Amino acid sequence: MTIRHTKSTGPNSDINLLDNHDRRITYLRLSITDRCNLRCRYCRPEEGVPFIPHEEILRFEELERLVSIFSALGINKVRLTGGEPFSRRGFLPFLTRLRKVEGIQYLHITTNGVKTKRYLDELATIGLNGINLSLDTLDHKRFWKITRRDYLKAVLQTMHGVLARNIPLKINSVVLKDTSDDEIIQLAGLARDFPITLRFIERMPFSGTMRAEKLENGNLSKRLKRIFPAIEECTAALPTTARIFSLPEYKGTIGIIQGYSRLFCSTCNKVRITPTGMLKTCLYDNGVLDLKKMLRTGSDDKEIESAILSCLQKRCINGHEAELLAKRSAEPSMASIGG
Ligand code: SAM
């Protein structure tokens, strides 16, 4: 199996890693832990999910090796997520080492912001390309209701700290069945006041429960147009999971991520690795390659590369197909996948 080369559209790479549907893969999301200090009700059940034993979780040196392999294949962007990445000891030194991996031009993290504030100076020094902060409400009581924890103040301090250090910031807000228009207006107000992108996310079936009810996400773009009649959709230059809108007088933008409707699969440029080292070529699949097994049974880089390339030649056309093939009886927790 070889990497197919086409005329490069990327900023610095002349390698085009293409899947079987000619989608260029440039982006790797690494979930480094399933541990989290929040208990968001759409992500895990109240009683929690059994923690993955430490020895089952990829070690930092294994993760670094995988990043180098993916970089050689044409990946130029890595996002670290979890669980909560700051729950894992050694995360900062790991980030610092990743920054030096040749070919990785864009290094990002997704965090809930609870513990993040104390690390912001180091993150700025590392030269992180962006932070996605998860924040579903600005109301204390509702924050408690959604996350089952009382950390809104810490998250807001992180938000202001990120802004003060000019690290590019996006805020992700999951829209729940009981998210009111007022709440959407309040959250969007952050994009009015600060140069951030506030993205409203459809709730997806990753709650870690045996959900029986069907998810109702409604039509988010119609809802935003009704609430903000002046919004204008911006056209994207690069493949993107989010649709972005501008509003007059806003310093930032607002967006929607339709991960439940799965409307952006045709331009999906990302793959994921779970904390236990399963490669996922779609958020909705069950994992298509056991990378941990390969790493721990002596496979060399070429063998791992070739196994990855082979999976990319069998990639599902979209998340609907992947979900059908996955035949799940219960929803996995997003914390064990890495959102
Ligand atoms: N702990 C970090 C955080 O909170 O940002 C990173 C991991 S978290 C699983 C990543 C993102 O997934 C968060 O923005 C979270 O809101 C989102 N998420 C989790 N479960 C989800 C679900 N069922 N539907 C949509 N988004 C979900």
Q: What ligand molecules are bound, each kind once? A: S-adenosylmethionine
Largest sheet: 12 strands, mixed
Trace the largest sheet across and list its strands.
7-8-9-6-5-4-3-2-1-10-11-12
User: In terms of per-residue confidence, which ranges show pLDDT below 50 for 5 or more consecutive residues?
Assistant: 5-12
Provide the residue-averaged pLDDT. 92
Can you characterise this structure?
This protein has 339 residues and is α/β, with parallel strands linked by helices. The chain has a single domain (7-337), classed as Alpha-Beta Barrel (TIM Barrel). The chain has helices at 60-73, 91-99, 120-126, 140-147, 152-164, 181-193, 220-227, 291-296, 301-312, 319-326; strands at 27-31, 77-81, 106-111, 130-134, 169-175, 197-202, 232-233, 242-246, 253-257, 270-273, 278-280, 289-290. It has a 12-stranded mixed β-sheet with strand order 7-8-9-6-5-4-3-2-1-10-11-12. It starts with 26 loop residues before the first strand and ends in a 13-residue tail after the last helix. Bound molecules: S-adenosylmethionine.
